[in-house]
Amino acid sequence: MKPQNCRKIINGLALIGMGMVFLSYIPFLSSIHREMIFVATFLVVGDVIFGFIFLRCPHCKKLLNFKWSSQSICHNCGEKLDDDSLKS
């Protein structure tokens, strides 16, 4: 999987989890507050696990940095990450 696609999935899951936490504090949703917090926690944990499994350099297979969303080269092997000739 390309690092750019992996980061989009990670960011999407994190936003959904955060949105669920904020929605759980709306007064008319207070009856399902606990369930929404559990689901949001599950999403965040799944998000981190997904990142550790799939956010890797396609060349050397080393883990890429989570916080560098615009990282264009691997800091382990020095290869470009945005190469269109990469096979998924």
How is this structure best summarized?
It contains 2 helices and no strands.
Report on the structure:
This protein is an all-alpha fold. Helices cover 49% and strands 0% of the residues. It has one domain. It has 2 helices and no strands. The termini are close together. The model has no long low-confidence stretch (mean pLDDT 78).
In terms of per-residue confidence, which ranges show pLDDT below 50 for 5 or more consecutive residues?
none
What's the helical proportion of residues? 40-55%
Our Rg estimate from Cα atoms comes to 16 Å
Overall outline? elongated
- Class based on secondary structure composition and strand pairing: mainly alpha
State the total count of DSSP E strands: 0
Please summarize the sheet with the most strands.
none
Q: How much of the polypeptide forms β-strand, as a percent range?
A: under 5%
Give me the number of helical elements: 2
Q: What's the domain count? A: 1
First-residue to last-residue Cα separation: 5 Å
Order of helices and strands: HH
- Average pLDDT rating: 78
Name its key features.
single chain, 88 residues, mainly alpha, transmembrane, transmembrane helix
Task: Give the SSE map.
Blueprint: H1 3-23, H2 33-54
Helix pairs in contact: 1-2
